[in-house]
Amino acid sequence: MTKPAELRTAVGDRVSSEAHTMTELLEIQRAAFLRDGIPDAKTRIDRITRLSSLLLDNSEEIAQALEADFGSRPRELSMATDIVGCMIDLTHQRRHAEKWMKEVNVAKGQGLAGFKQRLRHDPLGVVGIMGPWNFPLNLTFVPAGSAFAAGNRVLMRPSSVTARTTEVIAKHAPDYFSIEELAVITSKHGSGSDFAKLKVDHMFFTGSPEVGSSVAQEAAKNLVPVTLELGGKNPAVVDVDADIDKAAKFIADARLVNGGQVCLCPDYVFVPEAKLGEFTDKVIARWKEKFPTIRSNAEYTSTINEKNFTRIVGLIEDAEQLGATKHQVIPAGESLPDAETRKIPPTLLTGVKAGMKVEEDEVFGPVLTVYPYRDLSEAISHISSHPHPLTMYWSGDDNENFKKLADGTRSGSINANDFATHLFSLELPFGGVGKSGMGNYHGRFGFETFSHARAVTVSTLPVSVAELMSPPFTASDKRMTNGQLKMWAFFNNKAIKKLKKR
């Protein structure tokens, strides 16, 4: 692996991003982009490789910083998500960038007739990437890799909530990158709102719908296109014939990933009414099995800060006061929730109704709401009457009920029988719909998000389109137009007849 000292020679003098303002960094990168032109494949691959090295070379320090930021977060989780988890997509971008960036000839038959058509994928210029605190590196480095594959420069702003982790990245980034290529923006440069005001060529944001709306509004003032990767209350539905034991285990486990602080965690679940008691008992049993201790358990992730701790505890208390039933896993001798460690026990709520805050708000913590249903249409109606979630879970076979659920709802993705498995495919997009986001990335989808699909035509036709479309219009032009109208009317009527026969 290339060492930082060697990389420093490759990227020039070691200059920290904090030596410049955000606006200056944007101007520096834009000037470099214009000066150097569209980067070749070797340059793009080199940048993605250095981005990977930045993470891999400093992985232990990063994991320690993440643990300090959260208060309690297992090293294995940080390594799996914020280090190793990035490598799948970064490696894919590196392997395919050269192929994706090539100009493509389309409609070749028409080219032989004198009308050549080509498609380019050109870089946009300077991309701004705003990351969240729950996976502060994965959700900034993966889109940054896509932006590099597409030939862009990157201004990266990891979350200020995970300040220690951001500080580690800001400290080491100059060992791997010139600020002309990648500049790490910290709270010393200004707020996230200030960053959203930059006139970059594309703004990429991951976070809450509320902040995402603000980012989109600021970007719109400068006509900056945005990709928003947001959250939402992700539903799970257990089929009437599903294996309840398997359903309870995977949903219970999925709810507790990163202490429930994942935009893809299931937030609530619909279970056949006759199996409600069995399901809830098995979820509680699973949590008891996995967490014999919590308060001193280094593998039980803490809530990120006091604000969120208070908010989640408040959601539980509000639901209980309004009639919901609370089921919590609290090991013997422990007093939970605990404000000092910011640990909230795994909590299952039943009897939740409209008017309770937990029924509307995304929990983003170790709380699962369970609803009974008699007919699948009840679950579909509930899901469809709420904002579209980022993902949806199904426990059961790939059957007609699964199709009914998919056809009757909208979500960024659907995962059956396991947690967020679409993340491991390089052929599927990651993104939301409606309130859970707009746009997508991962694999080629990321490359295309940060590229401009640019049409190119070369005409050697014997007729001039410009001449045909400009006055004066002759009797011959009128006959041609009328003839075309009759032709298209004929084809349209033919299509109508085919539809009637179906």
UniProtKB/TrEMBL annotation:
Pfam families: Aldedh
Catalytic residues in the record: 229
Superkingdom assignment: Bacteria
Matching PROSITE patterns: ALDEHYDE_DEHYDR_CYS, ALDEHYDE_DEHYDR_GLU
Gene3D superfamilies named in the record: Aldehyde Dehydrogenase, Chain A, domain 1, Aldehyde Dehydrogenase, Chain A, domain 2
Domain named Aldehyde dehydrogenase: residues: 39-456
Keywords: Oxidoreductase
InterPro entries found in the cross-reference section: Ald_DH/histidinol_DH (IPR016161), Ald_DH_C (IPR016163), Ald_DH_CS_CYS (IPR016160), Ald_DH_CS_GLU (IPR029510), Ald_DH_N (IPR016162), Aldehyde_DH_dom (IPR015590), Aldehyde_DH_NAD(P) (IPR012394)
Keyword Disulfide bond among UniProt keywords: no
Record bears the keyword Oxidoreductase: yes
Family designation: Belongs to the aldehyde dehydrogenase family.
Protein name: Aldehyde dehydrogenase
UniProt organism field: Gordonia sesuvii
